[in-house]
Amino acid sequence: MRNLKILPFAISILCLSIHSAYAEISKTFKTKLATVKVTQMISDLPSPWGMEMLPDGKLLITLRDGEMIIADPENPNTKQTVSGVPKVWARGQGGLLDVAIDPDFTTNQTIYFTFSDASSGRGTGTSLASATLDLSSKPTLRNVKTLFAMKKTTNSSFHFGSRIVLDREGHIYFTIGDRGDDVRAQDPKDAAGSVIRINKDGSVPQTNPFADGKDALPQIWSIGHRNAQGAALHPETGEFWSLSHGAQGGDEINKPEAGKNYGWPTISYGREYSGAKIGVGTQAEGMEQPLYYWDPSIAPSGLDFYTGDAIPEWKGNLFAGALKFRLLSRLEMDGDKIIGEEQLFEDEFGRIREVRAFADGALWFMTDADDGAIYRITSAK
Q1: Could you give the strand order of the β-sheet that contains 251-254, starting from the edge strand earlier in sequence?
Q2: What is the pTM of this model?
Q3: What are the residues facing 133 on neighbouring strands?
Q4: Which of 46, 87, 141, 206 is the 20 to 30 A CA-CA neighbour of 343?
Q5: How far is 372 from 353, CA to CA, in rounded Å?
Q6: SS3 helix, strand, coil % of the chain, rounded to 5?
Q7: Which ranges of the chain would DSSP assign to H, the alpha helix?
Q8: 8 A C-beta contact, residue 12 and residue 361
Q9: DSSP string computed for 93-130
Q10: What is the CA radius of gyration of the chain?
C-alpha cells in the first residue's frame, strides 16, 4: 500500500455487499500462485489517471481532461463531479494526474493532487496542490493551495510524471518527468526528472539532502529519472520506491535515496527509438543502478506493494501496471530484491495505468482509455 496508516473504517464490511446493486462482470484466471477473480467495478471513465479510496469505500478518481469524480462501487452508474478543481493544461500527456488522501483524512478532509499547470503564462510544468474535499453536500474542493510548481516551464506535452506518496513521517514525495528534454534530468537546480520531497504545508524538510538550496533545489530528493509514473512505500522499511519509463527498453524500478543520481540520460539499459546508444552505456561513476529493469520496455505506470489478505499467495509482492503490453506485472520479493516476475492478464483488459492495494484487502487496477475502467482482484477460491 502507498500509505501504510490504515484509515479507521469498515471497508471489509462494505465489500461483502459491493455487488448488490448491479450484475457482476468478472473473469477468473489461474496464475502461478493463485486462482483469482477480476471484477469490473467502475466503467465508462474517459482517460482516468489516478484513484484513491475514501473512508466510505467510494473512489476518488482523476480524469486526464481535468475532471475529478467520486464513484461508488456499490452503485457504479452514479458518478459525482467534484467542483473547484483548478484549470489544467490537458494536452498530450498532460492533464489532471495523480491524487492521494491525507492519512488523517477522516478529521482534516485533505487531499493532494498533481496536474500540468499553465498558470505561469510562460508554458507548463507539473504542480502539486492540496485541498479540502468538502463532502457535506455536492463534492467540492476548497482551500486549494499550490504546494510546489516548477519554475522552469515549457510548451512540451511530454513527461509530466507524476505519482504522489505520503510517508510515515508526514512528508510528501512526488515524481516529475524530464518534460521530454532529457538533459534536464541531470540539472539539480531543475525539478524536471526528479523526485520531490516536501512537508504537507509545502515547506522544505530540514532532512532533505539539499535543504540549504546551495547546490540544488531544496525540494529535490533525487535526480536522473526519465518519467516516473509509479511510486509506493515499502511495507516493511517505509522507504520510497519509484517506477520510470525508459526509452526503447530500460524501464526501471528504483529505491531513490537522498541526494543520489539515477543516471538518466547518461546511463540507461535502453536505447533511443532510432536504435542509437543512450549516453555512455549502462554504468557510470556516481550514478545508481536500478533494482530491476525491463528490456524490451513494457511502458510501466502504477506501482504498489500488496499487503492484503484477499489473495494470501500474493502477500508481500510488488505490482506494476503496463501500458504497452496491457498487462499487470507481479514481482516476487526477497527483502529489497526482486527475484522473479509473472506477467498477468496480457491484452485482457487494456492499458493498465494504475494499480493500488487498498485497505479492503484486495488489489485494484485502472485501465487508461476513452472508456477506461477500474477492476478489483480477489481470490477465486
Answers
A1: 228-233, 240-244, 251-254, 292-294
A2: 0.93
A3: 141
A4: 46
A5: 9
A6: 5, 45, 50
A7: 11-16, 105-108
A8: yes
A9: T-SEEEEEE-TTHHHH-EEEEEEEE-TTSS-BEEEEEE
A10: 19
18: which residues sit within 8 A by CB, 6+ positions away? 41, 57, 73, 74
What is the Cα–Cα distance from 131 to 140, expressed in whole angstroms?
9
User: Which residue stretches of 214-361 are H helix?
Assistant: none
Q: What is the structure's pLDDT at 195? A: 98
Amino acid type, 301 = S
Q: Which among 128, 163, 139, 38 is positioned nearest to 79, based on CA atoms?
A: 139
DSSP state of 58: -
In the sheet where 194-199 sits, what is the strand order?
Answer: 164-166, 171-176, 194-199, 220-222
**Contact indicator for 366, 358 with CB cutoff of 8 Å:** no
Closest CA to 163 of 2, 341, 311: 2
Q: Which of 19, 159, 234, 245 is catalytic?
A: 159
Whether 4 shows a pLDDT value over 50: the answer reads: no
Phi, psi of 106 (to 5 degrees): -60, -25
Residue type, 272: E
Residue 185 φ then ψ, to 5°: -70, -15
Residue with cell 482534516: 108
Beta-carbon contacts of residue 334 (< 8 Å; ≥ 6 apart)? none
**Cα-based distances in Å from 103 to 7, 17, 41, 173:** 7, 26, 24, 14
Helix (H, G, I), strand (E, B) or coil at 19: coil
DSSP, res 286: T
pLDDT category at 5 given cuts 50, 70, 90 is: very low
C-alpha cell of residue 90: 490537458
DSSP 263-281: -TTTB-SSB-TTSPBPTTB
Q: How far apart are CA 78 and CA 193, in angstroms?
A: 38
DSSP, res 158:
S
Q: Would you call 159 a catalytic residue per the annotation?
A: yes
d(CA 171, CA 195): 12
Give dist(CA 306, CA 201) in Å, integer.
Answer: 29
8 A C-beta contact, residue 364 and residue 374: yes
The C-alpha atoms of residue 300 and residue 76 are separated, in whole angstroms, by: 27
